[in-house]
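Example record for the data management plan.
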Amino acid sequence: MIEEIQFYEPNEDFGFLSNFADSPIQLSDVTWPTSEHYYQAQKFTDHSVQQKILNASTPDEAFQLSRKYGHLVKSDWMDVRHSVMRYIVFEKFRQNPHFTHLLVSTGDKLLTEHSHKDSYWGDGGDGKGQNELGKILMEVRDYFAEQEPFNYVHFVDSAKLPTQWGTFRMYGFVEHATGKEHLALVYGDLKSGEPPLIRLHSECLTGDALFSARCDCGFQLSRAMENIVNAGSGVLFYLRQEGRGIGLINKIRAYHLQDNGADTVEANEALGFAADMRDYSFCKGMLSFLNIESVKLMTNNPRKVKALEKAGINISERVPLQEGNNPYNQGYLKTKASKLGHMFDNSFIK
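Corresponding structural encoding:
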């Protein structure tokens, strides 16, 4: 049985599907506040009526104005209304990518406008209506599900995450290509057009959760979260790419080889892997969901900078993140610098 999502009011769950949802749409030199404003205005050829609907303070008011001037509705409206709705719904999602991510993340669920007032655009309240708006939404969803950056990740849900540094908002994503689960921890209000301070942190169970001193990962994670809070806002992306992409069990095998004298690069290569197997292209989807176009990236890794730039992610500034030097990871840090090109101050590695 196909799972169904019912929507109606814009302030309810899945309210972004409603034509009443706040979603500015720029057409030529005119900005329509919602798709409802545009749809109702297209019923008329009288410019003054269209202007009144455009200037309506709410979509409800736009709807009521179309009823007030019902005697002026153009004669072919019933013939063209479906194409008008299809056009403006597509534009709504094309121009409001956050809504598009939410739409694509509904997967293959049946989308139904649960309206007892409308049996053409909605289900009539009893499920017997034509649900034409729902059909259009599913058509638009199918289109964008194949397009970048919406085809990289699937947004699942969000929740508060109190930490020792402050309370973050945790967003959960599933990567389409691999099925891996990734997180974005957002702190504070991200200002539109201003590059936020971010950290792309690859999962390191041994360092992040088991307090290993063999690497600097756990230390960097803590410092990055602290830096974001001190900056007032930012995002910590927690990526499930254990062991530079080789996985936890292979990482243990690599550690065994390191115990016998290999460095971190030699160990990976002895197991048949490249020194770094990570892929950051899917991060474009997470950044797009959060409406981030440019970032201040906390990293010492030039390869990460190049990989992100290759993936089309704009880096306005690289912010060093030197933390966790200790007697157990001296060789590890020196290999990072000499073989992987990590940029450390001379005072950090002795």
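Summary line stored alongside the record: Residues 118 and 124 are 5 Å apart (CA to CA).
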